[in-house]
Design brief:
The structure is a single chain. By secondary structure, the chain is of the alpha+beta class. The protein is 33% helix and 41% strand. It is elongated.
């Protein structure tokens, strides 16, 4: 799937939706190690961007996104519209990251 065919919008400019394949999702659950938490705690003492947590969040979003893309491809979709992220803490220090959207087939407008 061409990643440029994944959008938060409900249409894809230049394309016509020919088939709705339903909701697709990618879920990952992450936690930071004790060592990582100590490092992040030290960073937080100085203020500013806590890079250890940024890296964890980016990796979790990327993993959830890729799982969602695989789910869409398994259904035969060539695009995902209405794509969103969501995150929930399921236990102290453990977070679920969800990427979801609607898998569709699109064809270029003529």
């Amino acid at each position: 799937m061409d990643k440029s065919n994944i959008t938060t919008a409900f249409t894809l400019d230049g394309y016509k939706i020919t088939k709705n394949m339903g909701i697709v999702r990618g879920i990952t659950v992450r936690s930071r190690s004790v060592i990582g938490n100590i490092g992040a705690s030290i960073q937080s003492l100085f203020g500013g961007n806590i890079t250890l947590y940024v890296e964890l969040c980016e990796r979790a979003r990327e993993d959830a996104f890729e799982i969602m893309v695989q789910h869409a491809q398994a259904l035969g979709a060539n695009a995902v519209i209405g794509m969103r992220y969501d995150a929930n803490e399921i236990a102290p220090g453990i977070t679920e990251v969800l990427a979801y959207g609607t898998a569709v087939n699109v064809t270029p407008n003529s």
